Amino acid sequence: MPLKVPNGLPAITQLKEENIFVMKAQRAESQDIRTMRIAVVNLMPVKETTETDLLRLLSNTPLQVEIDFVRLETHLSKNTSSNHLDNFYRPFGEVKNQRYDGLIVTGAPIEHLPYEEVAYWAEMQEILDWSQTNVTSSMFICWASQAALYHFYGLQKYPLSKKLSGVYPHTLSCPTHPILRGFDDLFYIPHSRNSEVRVEDVVRCKALELLSSSEEAGAYMVMSRDSRQLFVTGHAEYARNTLKQEYDRDVAKGLNPTVPKNYFPLDDPTLKPTKIWASHAHLLFSNWLNYHVYQLTPYEWS
C-alpha cells in the first residue's frame, strides 16, 4: 500500500524510480481506510537522504501510512536548507498536542557529547516524554536509541576506542518475538557509531528485553517489556552507498578512517559495495508497523 507524504518532497522522485507507490493527499483521502500516522523526528545532518531511506522501508506493508516529518525548534540544521525544512517539516511545538500511531527518531553524529551537553537535549527529553502519552509505539535509531535508553532507564553509553563502521553479523536472543518474525538465525546490519550501550547493562534492566546482538557490534535490538519502545543501535535503513559516503567524507577530512568491515568487495573502497541487509531491513520495519503499531494502536484516539 502507498505512503502519504507531502507534495513535492524530493524523495518522491527516487521512490517512484524504485516502483514504490507514493500517494498524494487527495487520493488518499478518497479511500475508506484507517491511515497509520507516523511522526519522524529526523536528526540526521543530510535529511533528504534519511527521508528516502526511511520511506523506502515504511512503504513495504499493506497499510496506508501517513508521514509527518518533525523538526526541532531549538536546533538549526546546517546541512539542510531552511526552504526544505519550512516546506516539508513541522516544528515539534505544532504537533505535540496530536496523537500518532508510531514515532521514529533517527540517529545524530553527536555520540562524543555527554547528553546534557547536546544543545537540544531539553527538547529531546520533552519529545521522549511526549512519546509516552501521545504515541502507540516508538522506534529509536542509533544515537536516539542510546539517548532514550539513558533517559528512560538510566543506561550509560560508553565511548569506543575506534569508530564502529561496517556490516556485522547478528544473532537472535528471542527468536519467537513478533518483531523478529521471518528473521534468519544469522543476518547482517550496518553500524556507524563511536559509542555503545553494553549488553550486560541491557540484560540487568528488568524492564527491557535484548532481542538481537552481535559479537562485534554488541547490542542491536532492545525492546521494552510493554512492546511500546524499540531501540535499534544499527542502521538497517541505510542505502547501499551510505557507509561509502561516510567513509569518503572522513577521508576528505583527513581522519584516516578504517575501511568499513564486510562492506566493500575485497575491502577495496574503489569497488561497488555489496548490499546484504535489505531483506532484514524490510522485515524489521514491516514487522514493527504490523505487530507494534497497527495491532496495538486504537482505532480512534481518545
Description:
The chain has about 300 residues and is an alpha/beta fold. The model has no long low-confidence stretch (mean pLDDT about 90). The protein has a single domain (about 5-160, about 195-240, about 275-295), classed as Class I glutamine amidotransferase (GATase) domain (Rossmann fold), CATH 3.40.50. Strands 1, 2, 3, 4, 5, 6, 7, 8, 9, 10, 11 and 12 form a twelve-stranded mixed beta sheet that branches. It is globular, with a radius of gyration of 18 Å. It is built from ten helices and twelve strands.
What are the SSEs and their pairings?
Blueprint: E1 3-4, H1 11-17, E2 22-23, H2 25-29, E3 36-41, H3 47-58, E4 65-71, H4 82-88, E5 89-91, H5 92-95, E6 100-105, H6 121-134, E7 135-141, H7 143-153, E8 158-172, E9 186-196, H8 199-204, E10 208-214, E11 218-224, E12 229-232, H9 242-252, H10 278-294
Helix pairs in contact: 1-3
What's the gist of this structure?
The chain has 302 residues and is an alpha/beta fold. It is built from ten helices and twelve strands. Strands 1, 2, 3, 4, 5, 6, 7, 8, 9, 10, 11 and 12 form a twelve-stranded mixed sheet that branches.
Low-pLDDT residue intervals, each spanning 5 or more residues: none
Assess the beta-strand content as a share of residues.
Answer: 25-35%
Mean pLDDT: 89
- Ends distance: 26 Å
What features would you highlight for this structure?
10 helices, alpha/beta, 302 residues, Rossmann fold
